[in-house]
Amino acid sequence: MKRIVTAALALSLLTSVSALAQPAYPDRDRGQYSDYRPGGPRWSRGDRFPNQYRQERYEVRDWRQRGLRQPFRGYRWYRYGDSNYFLVNVATGLIYETVYRDVRDQRWQQGYSRTYTYNDDLYYRECRNESDPGGALIGALIGGLIGNRAGDDGDRAGATVAGVIIGGVIGAAMSKDLDCDDRSYAYRSYYNGFNSGRTGSRYSWTNPRSSRRGDMVVNSYYTDRYGFRCANFTQTVYFQGRPRVTRGRACRQPDGAWAVVD
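^ thats the sequence. predicted structure below, dont judge the formating
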């Protein structure tokens, strides 16, 4: 288990470093991309690139001059804004690789002070050496450590969605009220809820051993002032049939993971 997580983390770091190391490319087409706005949406691997940006005028054909890799068969590079690039599956619209050369990481730091990693997740810190009946670690629910791993070929690209990192007050409440097995099951409800894109749906979990149960509901999605997708949600845990309710807010940070920020 530790070897799998370590390898996935190393690959994630290498991918991030390679993107940052790419040379800046002058914006020869400024003004052509009128739909772009600073602080606009930030897409991650596994997202579907919007149809309006998969038009010929956004396609990047001089990818070599821009320091980008050669696209796989069936994939094309598209551009959004001054110098943000997306390797997209032509048939499905799913994003395989992102190369951001704007100030979005700085914007995240301005808005949220820090980037959250799986080490900030209380379940991972407290339970990674315990049993994992709900598959929170194996299934890459925490931080997307394994789920965002590159596939062996292009056909597997973009088949995953972002993981979750639950810290702060919500994480502390889960640590206080639930054991490791409970939290392993609970993570799937967060994972499914945040990535569903739907509001008002109830995502429930039950630990068959303890009969403890709970659910989470995304009450609303919105785009924050820095352009990141956020969600207000409610968590309910039932103890002897009596509900205990906690509310929180999560935002999808630059690496694609949903982080509970308060």
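The first strand starts at residue 59 and ends at 60.
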